[in-house]
Write the structure tokens for this entry.
Amino acid sequence: MPDWGQMSVKEVLVSLKTGNDGISENEARLRLIDHGRNEIVQKHKFSALSLFFSQFTDFLIILLLFASIVSFATSDPTDGIIILCIVAINAIIGFVQEYKAEKSLAALRSMISLKSKVIRNGTETVIDRSLVVPGDIIMLDEGDKIPADARLLECYNLSIDESCLTGESVKVRKDALQLKEIKNITEAKNMVFMGTNVATGRAKAIVVATGMETEFGKIARLTLESKKEMSPLQQEVSHMGKIIARVAIVVCIIVFLIGVFLRGQGIIEMFTYSISIAVAVVPEGLPTVLTVALAMGVRKMARKNSIVKKLASVETLGSTTVICTDKTGTITKNEMTVKRIFASNRFINISGEGYNKAGKFSDTKTKDYEMLLKAGILCNNASFQDDRSIGDPTEIAILVAAAKVGIEKEQLEREFTKLHEIPFSSERKMMTAIYADKQKRFAFVKGAPREIVSRCNRILVNGKVKALNSAEKERLMQKDRDMAETALRVLGTAYREVGKKENPADEEVIENKLIFLGFFGMIDPPRDDVAGAIGLCRQAGINVIMITGDQKTTAKAVAKQIGLISKDEEAITGEDLKEMTDDELFEKIKHVKVFARTSPSDKLRIIAVLRKHNQVIAMTGDGVNDAPALKKSDIGVAMGITGTDVSKEASHMVITDDSFTTIVSAVEEGRGIYDNIKKFVLYNMTGIASELFIILVGIFASLPLPLTAIQILLVDMGTEIFPSLALGLDNHDANIMQRKPRDRSERMMNKEMILSILSLRF
Ligand code: ATP
């Protein structure tokens, strides 16, 4: 590999002809022409030819081919030829339908295209990952998938999961220091590689190689494409087909033997009969129709903003019994506006909506809030300009609030230089940025109120630092609750001076003995349609649980607004969870709808407990640490807009609008698709039963063969495949969400269906 890691940052920038502001858009276009798109060219795994031949590998089709051989050998070869033609037509229809389905699934998968944050012309922009070029400066955050090979310029607490490249599951710590010698990629601690993930921290890096020139491209691990897995229903139908085929063979042999030996009928005549029986009972179109119906369902779901990655998930969705959902962004709009601040022991209200600077502070006489705003802006990775904003909505809201009194990030960044960052994580629920001005170093901290207040021993009031005792801390927490009760999302901020001898990376020291500055209270209104969707879930027997990192009071207030809970129902916090046994937790889950102050590991525990009790769980997640919970749940739902790359990869379904309602409509669609499949399986099987009935009556009444094999095949073609496809697309019942969820262990071909096929169910 080139010795990028052995060069200094300056040398790398020079040799890639990149300035501190990144490259220009024009330059990027030229480099894109030179180096090509940043893509791994995958060997075409999905070949049309293999799909076509796979049509002939079905056990049922093999049986038909066998029947045609027997026809050739025994009777008029035209019968054999016609059977072959019919098999071929069947295969072509199957091939065309499956090919279309496969193509549209591939197109859907590419809709979850990943983006990258780059700095071009000094401005941070989000671009499609395939457009990243060598020399681009990229910004990396926790949960990002690294878009290309890059040399680190700056990094904060960065660790990378390189397992997909090295097979090593331990997270690798990285830093931007120049190295003397690098023998292999595992030693390249100042480099990050395409395809690996940011496990913790943040970084700025310069791209040194893209596409097939990356380490990932070179070793061309092109087996990323997931294996074609059969859904449980496809397995059941395939299994059913095999049983039917076996029964058919046995019946054919018996009929043949009875005819020839007991009744003395001609061998050729009895062969023809037997073949007709085999042909009649083979549901040759069923597997194709099933795949097509599932794929059509997936397409329909995509139109409603849910991208399902595997066909199997469509069925699972239909049997969902519990939806575990985040609050921020899924239940709420994630359009934060700071409405109230608390500083110097006073509340100040702020007018204005959304990311618009128009708005006023209710009191600007004293400037006690300035330090609060400064801390909020400097401990902040978002950017906000008039027409565009990038980053976490919570952080953008703080920038907007400060801009309302003329405090801007750019201006502060000229005064202060960033030295280090202890990044935010859902476990820590806080973050810290360390800055230096001309004389001193400061740590600015923001996070969940409890985390902040508990780490403070002083408070800034009217420009003076005073001691903070535990009674005063409790009083501050009461202020927090007052704000949270009105459904405000509350964030605390604090700061401290960092001594010359103190290490900015030492969390224990830096995030301790802080000076409390105040609270930001922001509204994040619930999505308009969530209350309706929650009502629908209630009717459909689906238990909805809100699992949020936010505090209990805010979570309960929002839950009340959307009708998830009424009055003062119990809510459980992450701390309470630790005290409970699994059995106690399961008892609680039956009626508790709100879990607050949770961390990703709590989600994992809730899933484990629910699974133990045979629940089918759809669980949302967006952070890197949500990946295990997403994988473990039956339907892991990642957020298309705010979700990290890692969460999207770990999920079964991505919702492109991040909305809870979309999950509910996907469940509804899943139920509808299952119903339709059931309808056409029933239709198909009833047709088979009728054909078999006619033939068997013919045989036992010693009548001439009522339907020849060819006639049966022709009738099947006209009456099986096309009507089945139509049934597969049928609109679902209006009352589909008024039923309880289907039992996952329930077999489609159950007693009820068998009785229906035999017309014995009245
Ligand atoms: P949900 O889990 O429903 O998505 P959430 O965003 O509140 O909600 P987390 O992202 O786990 O959950 O955040 C947990 C807590 O950390 C938040 O309630 C908030 O107090 C605090 N927090 C969130 N974002 C930031 C941030 N950018 N900087 C500092 N603290 C934050």
